[in-house]
Structures are given as structure tokens and as C-alpha cells.
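Board notes (copied after class):
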Amino acid sequence: MKRPSTYSLLLPIWNAINCTFYCNSITDNAGFNYTIHTCSTLWASIGFTVTIAGQTYTIMSFVPDQSITVQGTVALSLTTASFQLYAPKFYHGTIKATDTDLNTKVNANLLLTDKLPMGWLHEPTDETIDEDMMKAIGMRSKCELYFMIDYSSKSIPWTNDQHYEFAVWPMRNLIDAFMESVSRAKTLNSNLIKKSSPVDLPRFGSYTGKSNSDTTVFSQPMSGTRFNIELPWIRHDLLCCQPNLTRI
């Protein structure tokens, strides 16, 4: 039986991340400009677009976990207390392979939200297989994950504090949403996850200890958070449907 890779196990968990953005109230600022009040801004960030009631609005500013302010060209008509935020993208591979994927999408003139925000599984992944068929946990994966958004397209360069406010905070919210999806997954035992290690990376570059050089890892400048975690996967054969050997 083929043993699934860490990436193939993570992908459905990533795709199950809850993108529902809940609205507490809306303030009309005039000129098709609106402030949407909420308890969680999720991974919303400046410059990204949201679709609300079939209309597109651009996020102009936000106060982390309090509100987002959007600009549109038509009146905002929200008949429900929520809408779907743009879904984060998931990449995997080495630095070079992932950079190639990102550049391919950039060269294809895709919109910012077509490629970002991104979750990136830095491969190769350290996987430990337990060959004891009596054990429920068949594999443990030491995952080095990065949660990133781009900052190169901003008209005014961000200050260091703004990197934390506009990139790190949303990406930490994305980590929370990812872990909530992990807790619902049936392919692993989330109760065995006892710790994780987030490290904030404003102006993500080549790090030596706590020093950050000016050399970017990807061609496209990024900011966000690295997240190290070990995931205990339930033995694959225990998840598969067993054939019904009872004959009638």
C-alpha cells in the first residue's frame, strides 16, 4: 500500500480552512466606502479584494480583529451576517521550486489573490515511519510551514511596525485557522500535538540567528510567520475502507 506524503495529507486539511468572515455591523463612510466591523479580520490585508453579494471591493485599511474598510464602485448590500474571504493558496517544495511556481504565476499576470496569501510547506519534510502495525500513529511529520503575503506592490513602503500589523497579524490569524482545520481532520490525532513554534518574519529574508539580511528568499518580497509543528498521522491502512468479505 502506498504511503501518502506529508503534502498529500496536508492538502485536504488546507483546503478545509474556514474562510467565513463574520460581520457585526457596517458603517457607510459615503462614496461607496464602508467599514465592516468584526471580531476577527482573519487574514484580510490591504490591497486584496473581497467579493460581497456579487460585487468586488478593495480592502483599503483594517484594524486587526476589529474592522476592515473597503472601497467599491456600487453600494454595499449585505443581506447576511457573513461572506467568504479569499482562500489562501498552498505551495510545497524547495525554495527554488516554489520561487519558480510563484514567478510563473506572476508572469501569467494573475491577480494578487490568485497566488497569495500563501502557505508553504518547505520540503523535503522529515517523516518518521512507525513500522509497528499495532500502533495507531503510523507517521510523524516535522513540518516547516511558512504563512506569507507580498509587500512589493505597496505604493508606500511599510515600516517595521506596519509589517507586523499588515502581514504578521493576518498570517498568525491564518495559522489559527489552519490549526482549527487540523483539529477537525480525521487523518491525524490532534490531541497528541502538544507544542508548536511560530517565528515572525517581517521582510522575510536569509536569516542567521536573529539577524535578517537584505537578501530575499523569493524573488517576490514576502512578510509573515514561520510555523514549525510535528503532526502525528493515523496509520493509513486504518483510514481505508476495508472490503466487505461477507457474502450473501
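Comment from the instructor: The chain has a mean pLDDT of 86. The radius of gyration is 20 Å.
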